[in-house]
């Protein structure tokens, strides 16, 4: 696996990392660690460390690599209060602005999303047809989860 995730020239598809305030060199460093690590599980994980700046709203960030498929992803998670719903709304709206409608033709965070969340249903969006496919969800336990595939 090539350790260089992004070229030195920023292309529009890398905007997802800009939006989340993720430094590509930190992802590259984590991938290099996983490249040389070994475990008995199919998926290797390493906690993402970025000291200088916050990674949007998330408090748990992992780089995961499937040893069988050799696919890597960035997995972000935030547990917590109902205030997370406003954060999900803002993030979904920013992703819509970046990518347009999701794969199910959903647009910005809407009243139906708010009603679903208040009734304990999962609110989610996914953009699979981008350079870095993105899935985001907010569940009844008030947890925001986001996954970005790297390859």
End-to-end Cα distance: 10 Å
**Secondary structure tally, helices:** 4
Helix coverage percent of residues?
A: 25-40%
Structural class: alpha+beta
Q: Let me know the number of strands.
A: 6
* Shape summary: globular
Name the beta content range: 15-25%
Q: Regions with pLDDT < 50 over 5+ consecutive residues?
A: 6-12
What is Rg? 16 Å
What do you see in this structure?
Helices cover 28% and strands 23% of the residues. By secondary structure, it is an alpha+beta fold. It has one domain. It has helices at 15-20, 24-36, 84-99, 111-118; strands at 43-47, 60-66, 72-78, 123-127, 134-138, 144-149. A hairpin with a 5-residue loop joins strand 2 and strand 3. A six-stranded antiparallel sheet has the order 1-2-3-6-5-4. The chain contains four helices and six strands, in the order H-H-E-E-E-H-H-E-E-E.
Q: Which features would summarize this protein structure in a list?
A:
single chain, 151 residues, alpha+beta, 6-stranded antiparallel β-sheet, 6 strands, globular
Care to give the gist of this entry?
The chain is 28% helix and 23% strand.
